[in-house]
């Protein structure tokens, strides 16, 4: 007999493998015989050790190495050893798991003793977590591969299953438990065990789990898995709806738990078939209202509340198909219970109540939507009148709220014309009379509401003759009034645009009675553009629009030509009119000279984006030929006006030719960016080697994710660190600025490789930046200037999804503020950003950051912006750090901010007082 007792475990396993599998000089029975003494030992620890060795060897076998008889022999041994193994370890469970899941040659009917020993007679919950997890794997395997046998067990299997899984608490095992439950509920008729099966899972919901920092299982994942189990069988429906109602009325639930319950309701309404009656569903309506209209919940109504209410309404509608009167009662109850929340707007719940009513409106039949629309419009008009206001001082605010709600609901009506036309007709006169009355309290908001509502009436073509005449008067009166707010002006222009399309004859009356010389000068071009949405109007007003365009272009103000873009956008479907608008603008644009060419070049850039592909190509070729034709000052003026549009051109040869013209260095850099971004990797680079051009190449290649772009970025950081002749901050600012008109991928039609280009670039460059920073030695101060620009670049991204990258950057910040040299203000500005995003700081890092922030607070020379950043940082630390970690630092913080409490700036005094209060409260926690 071969003896391997003198070798260590690893060598022993390899030797057994060689004998059994490679050389085949030993049979499995001989191998088992060699282990007989240990297998039959009177000492449990020795038996467990032998089993471990046995499993170590067979786990190395190929999946098809063991024959059926051999697998049967091993399974019998392991199953017979279950009871003794439970006292010392879980080796036999690992053995059974390996044989069942990895062996191709399983013996016939092996599932019978397996099911009996492991689950029916065994106590699964008595095993340690790892062994329970393996048993769940075995159970899931049986459910997928031996389902017919398990079905033959009938109710006995369900009882065994519930006994085995009941009491599970470990999140790692719960994931497997929920998976097994789905298999059972989908494949078995639950019969009398339905409620017991439901309760087996319901006891875990809402999920109470707080994962540790490195846990891979999240609370959200567990909650979603548990919820999917609760709706996995149609027979669960009555128990699930009762359960949801119970939880919604549980005052001990947190907001997070209510969210889980309402998300469960959404899934339940989507998964379960219509219910025979509404008695299960109606109480849930009150539960949602209780959560959604809780006075303690501030801010907007969470989206999940509205979504759950909408889902419930749809379920109620489906469930009342055979009894339409039942849904009538539900709608009547909803309206009745909503009335006090809407009319008593001073409670602050009006908007939330209207949100729930909107959900009902969107979910129900046309008949019920009509009822809701009629009632809501009547309530809103009541708010605008201020009839239900208790305190006179609140009246203006309530009137303003009412006007905002009116616009929302009239817009909703326009999208649902069939169910809302009746309400629009019935309330037309009352709506405009109420808005006119509201001008006493909120004149601008009232006029905005009038314009918006009138525009919708004309849009859905349900206006009366009286409204046609009224609107003509509104427009005529608006010509001379000053522009108070942009929103009011945009609402007016919207009305004029729609009104002139249908009633240009009425507009002509206004124009004849009111020459443009009498209008408010700021409104002339916007109103003329709004009118010119038809050929007839354009033909009549073109000459005057050209005159106004020339004036605006000679003395441009940001946003003053936005109205022309809006006019062109509105006419894109009318190709002939659109091109007339474009050619007219371009002719004026080309001829007019102005000192602020750059501001109007942005308008041309936006307009050129509206062109079709063919027209855009023709326009780009026209610009290219003009670049070659013009000389001297004419070329420079043309370049300032057209460069932003020209950056959209895809012909890199023409762009390269343009760089050889005598234009500004800035334009050449912009053109090189467009060239590099659109060039194929095989084309040689034409970009000059100076740093100011190198950054252009790096930026363009990062944006399109070109080959070797990260190597080029690495080289760029090396240059920045070593080249003292160039400002690192300006280079980094340009590198990461994709908002400017010449760098914006959408406005310039640059190649980005994917819609998630910003997230990609951030994830790509952060590790390189961190490595280069650590390697920079005494040049760290140059590279650290990238930090604020990097954070600004990441602002549009979801910081929670990029925690790994921010965690990489945190040591850079800590090292930077540990340096003795002066730190730039814009680097200091990043500290509050980091503290908001990052996990709580470890002790040493916390002390470093606190010392730095407190030194700023104590320094009489600190700038106001730095003081604001320091105080913000201290406040964030007080809120986010574990209180005990801050106790020893409280004296330092409180003494450091004492001087600021007497600062001449009120804002700083208030911020310092807030910091002092928050840090003194830390001691009590």
From TrEMBL:
Organism annotation: Caenorhabditis remanei (Caenorhabditis vulgaris)
Function in brief: Key component of the cytosolic iron-sulfur protein assembly (CIA) complex, a multiprotein complex that mediates the incorporation of iron-sulfur cluster into apoproteins specifically involved in DNA metabolism and genomic integrity. In the CIA complex, MMS19 acts as an adapter between early-acting CIA components and a subset of cellular target iron-sulfur proteins.
Domain of life: Eukaryota
Keyword Lipid biosynthesis: no
Family statement drawn from the similarity comment of this UniProt entry: Belongs to the MET18/MMS19 family.
Location in or out of the cell: Cytoplasm, Cytoskeleton, Spindle; Nucleus
GO annotation, biological process: DNA repair; iron-sulfur cluster assembly; protein maturation
Native organism taxonomy: Eukaryota, Metazoa, Ecdysozoa, Nematoda, Chromadorea
Protein name per UniProt: MMS19 nucleotide excision repair protein
Subunit structure: Component of the CIA complex.
Cellular component aspect of the GO annotation: cytosolic [4Fe-4S] assembly targeting complex; nucleus; spindle
């Amino acid at each position: 007999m071969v003896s391997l007792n003198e070798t260590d475990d690893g060598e022993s396993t390899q030797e057994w493998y060689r004998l059994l599998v490679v050389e085949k000089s030993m049979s499995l029975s001989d191998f088992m015989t060699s282990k007989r003494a240990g297998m039959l030992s009177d000492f449990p620890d020795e038996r467990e050790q032998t089993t471990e060795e046995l499993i170590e060897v067979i786990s190395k076998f190929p999946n098809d190495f063991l024959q059926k008889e051999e697998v049967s022999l091993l399974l019998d041994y392991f199953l017979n050893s279950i009871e003794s193994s439970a006292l010392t370890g879980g080796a036999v469970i690992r053995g059974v798991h390996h044989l069942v899941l990895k062996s191709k040659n399983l013996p016939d009917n092996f599932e019978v003793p397996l099911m009996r020993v492991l689950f029916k007679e065994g106590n699964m919950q008595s095993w340690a977590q790892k062994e329970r997890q393996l048993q769940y794997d075995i159970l899931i395997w049986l459910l997928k591969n031996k389902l017919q046998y398990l079905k033959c067990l009938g109710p006995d299997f369900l009882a065994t299953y519930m006994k085995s899984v009941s009491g599970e608490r470990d999140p790692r095992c719960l994931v497997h438990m929920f998976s097994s439950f789905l298999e059972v509920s989908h494949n078995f008729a639950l019969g009398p065990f339905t409620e017991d099966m439901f309760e087996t899972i319901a006891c875990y919901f809402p999920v109470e789990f707080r994962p540790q920092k490195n846990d891979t299982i999240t609370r959200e994942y567990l909650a979603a898995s548990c919820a999917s189990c609760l709706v996995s069988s149609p027979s669960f429906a009555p128990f699930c709806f009762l359960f949801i109602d119970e939880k919604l009325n549980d005052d001990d639930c947190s907001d997070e738990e209510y969210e889980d319950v309402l998300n469960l309701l959404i899934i339940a309404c989507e998964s379960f078939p219509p219910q025979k009656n509404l008695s299960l569903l109606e109480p849930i309506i009150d539960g949602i209202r209780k959560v959604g209209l809780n006075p303690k919940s501030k801010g907007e109504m969470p989206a999940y509340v509205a979504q759950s209410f909408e889902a419930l309404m749809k379920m109620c509608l489906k469930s009342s198909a055979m009894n339409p009167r039942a849904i009538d009662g539900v709608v009547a109850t909803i309206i009745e219970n909503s009335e006090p929340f809407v009319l008593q707007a001073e409670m602050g719940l009006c908007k939330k109540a209207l949100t729930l009513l909107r959900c009902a409106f969107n979910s129900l039949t046309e008949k019920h939507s009509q009822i809701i629309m009629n009632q809501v419009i009547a309530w809103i008009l009541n708010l605008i009148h201020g009839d239900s206001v208790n305190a006179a001082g609140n009246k203006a605010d309530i009137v303003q709220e009412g006007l905002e709600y009116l616009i929302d609901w009239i817009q909703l009506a326009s999208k649902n014309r069939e169910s809302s036309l009746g309400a629009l007709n019935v309330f037309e006169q009352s709506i405009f009379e109420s808005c006119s009355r509201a001008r006493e309290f909120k004149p601008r908001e009232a006029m905005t509401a009038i314009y918006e509502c009138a525009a919708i009436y004309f849009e859905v073509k349900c206006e009366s003759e009286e409204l046609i005449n009224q609107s003509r008067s509104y427009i005529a009166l608006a010509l001379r009034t000053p522009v108070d707010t942009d929103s009011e002006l945009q609402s007016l222009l919207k009305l004029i645009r729609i009104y002139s399309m249908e009633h240009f004859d009425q507009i002509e009356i206004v124009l004849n009675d009111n020459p443009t010389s009498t209008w408010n000068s700021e409104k002339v071009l916007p109103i003329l553009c709004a009118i010119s949405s038809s050929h007839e109007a354009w033909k009549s007003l073109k000459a005057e629009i050209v005159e106004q365009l020339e004036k605006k272009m000679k003395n441009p103000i940001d946003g003053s030509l936005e109205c022309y873009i809006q006019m062109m956008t509105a006419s894109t479907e009318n190709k002939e009119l659109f091109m007339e608008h474009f050619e007219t603008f371009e002719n004026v644009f080309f001829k007019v000279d102005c000192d602020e060419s750059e501001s109007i070049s942005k308008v041309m850039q936006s307009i050129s984006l509206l062109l079709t592909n063919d027209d855009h190509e023709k326009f780009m070729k026209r610009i290219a030929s003009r670049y070659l034709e013009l000389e001297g000052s004419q070329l420079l003026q043309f370049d300032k006006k057209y460069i932003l549009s020209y950056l959209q051109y895809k012909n890199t040869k023409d762009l390269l030719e343009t760089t050889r013209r005598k234009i500004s260095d800035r334009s050449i850099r912009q053109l090189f960016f467009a060239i590099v971004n659109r060039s194929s990797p095989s084309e040689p680079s034409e970009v000059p080697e100076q740093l100011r051009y190198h950054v252009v190449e790096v930026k363009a290649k990062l944006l399109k994710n070109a080959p070797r772009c990260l190597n080029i970025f690495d080289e760029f950081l090396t240059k920045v660190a070593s080249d003292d002749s160039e400002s690192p901050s300006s280079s980094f600012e340009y590198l990461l600025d994709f908002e400017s008109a010449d760098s914006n991928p959408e406005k310039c039609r640059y190649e980005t490789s994917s819609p998630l280009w910003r997230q990609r670039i951030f994830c790509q460059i952060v590790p390189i930046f961190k490595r280069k920073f650590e390697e920079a030695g005494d040049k760290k101060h140059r590279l650290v200037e990238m930090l604020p620009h990097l954070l600004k670049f990441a602002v549009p991204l979801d910081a929670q999804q990029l925690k790994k990258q921010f965690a990489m950057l945190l040591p850079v910040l800590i090292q930077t503020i540990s340096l003795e040299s002066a730190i730039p203000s814009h680097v200091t500005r990043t500290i509050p950003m980091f503290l908001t995003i990052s996990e709580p700081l470890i002790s040493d890092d916390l002390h470093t950051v606190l010392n730095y922030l407190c030194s700023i607070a104590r320094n009489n020379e600190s700038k106001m912006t730095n003081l604001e950043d320091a105080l913000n940082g201290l406040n964030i630390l007080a809120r986010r750090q574990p209180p005990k970690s801050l106790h020893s630092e409280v004296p330092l913080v409180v003494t450091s901010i004492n001087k600021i409490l007497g600062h001449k700036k009120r804002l700083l005094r208030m911020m310092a007082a807030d910091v002092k209060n928050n840090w003194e409260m830390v001691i009590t926690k």
